[in-house]
């Protein structure tokens, strides 16, 4: 069952979830919106959101393990040392999205991530400083908000800050999706069973410094 007005779907037990949950049930129920503090996983998510541009996220999710194998599990210290030979290796890998500009961007962003971590102590600490304050969040995360806000003031600011540091494929829409995914915001729809779970996880989360 579903409620078109609310954007929620209701299962046989009467439990409500976001409308997109059936296409990615495990990702929705156990990963999306949970706070992430690990540098490698944050770099990975920025890269994968960049690869997703112009594509459906489920396509990237299905290829995630292949991406991890191809990019040394997104160890940005290793990826930062990739050469043109690695670009050609990645372009020949049928398990990933073979877009040269996006591959080159992932390597560039690994170098920028390494610089930022060396400068500030951790990529996570720097990124989480861009978490929006509660007053910057909407009063309700409903279907209208979901459909009409592909970016946010926080994602625009983070995009600008990363671009100033030389990052690429980090536009405001890409970073809005990134912030949603790694728990910097909780955009599970009001009424979704996961919304309160994520709120508790965010409340218990120790922000990296």
TrEMBL record:
<dbReference type="InterPro" id="IPR052891">
    <property type="entry name" value="DNA-3mA_glycosylase"/>
</dbReference>
<protein>
    <submittedName>
        <fullName>DNA-3-methyladenine glycosylase I</fullName>
        <ecNumber>3.2.2.20</ecNumber>
    </submittedName>
</protein>
<dbReference type="InterPro" id="IPR011257">
    <property type="entry name" value="DNA_glycosylase"/>
</dbReference>
<keyword id="KW-0378">Hydrolase</keyword>
<dbReference type="GO" id="GO:0008725">
    <property type="term" value="F:DNA-3-methyladenine glycosylase activity"/>
</dbReference>
<keyword id="KW-0326">Glycosidase</keyword>
<dbReference type="InterPro" id="IPR005019">
    <property type="entry name" value="Adenine_glyco"/>
</dbReference>
<dbReference type="Pfam" id="PF03352">
    <property type="entry name" value="Adenine_glyco"/>
</dbReference>
């Amino acid at each position: 069952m579903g409620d078109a007005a609310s954007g929620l779907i209701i299962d046989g037990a009467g439990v409500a979830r976001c409308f997109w949950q059936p296409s990615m049930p495990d990702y929705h129920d156990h990963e999306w919106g949970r706070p992430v503090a690990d540098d490698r996983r944050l770099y990975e998510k920025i890269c994968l959101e960049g690869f997703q541009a112009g594509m459906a996220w489920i396509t990237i999710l299905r290829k995630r393990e292949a991406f991890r194998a191809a990019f040394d599990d997104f160890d940005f210290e290793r990826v930062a040392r990739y050469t043109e030979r690695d670009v050609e290796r990645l372009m020949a890998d049928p398990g990933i999205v073979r877009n040269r500009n996006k591959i080159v961007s992932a390597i560039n962003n690994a170098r920028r991530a390494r610089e930022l971590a060396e400068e500030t102590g951790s990529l996570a600490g720097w990124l989480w400083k861009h978490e929006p304050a509660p007053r910057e969040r909407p009063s309700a995360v409903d279907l209208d908000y979901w459909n009409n806000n592909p970016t946010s003031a926080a994602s625009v600011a983070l995009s600008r800050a990363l671009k100033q540091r030389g990052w690429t494929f980090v536009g405001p829409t890409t970073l809005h999706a990134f912030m949603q995914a790694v728990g910097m915001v909780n955009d599970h729809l009001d009424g979704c069973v996961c919304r309160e779970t994520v709120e508790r996880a965010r409340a218990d989360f120790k922000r990296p410094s």
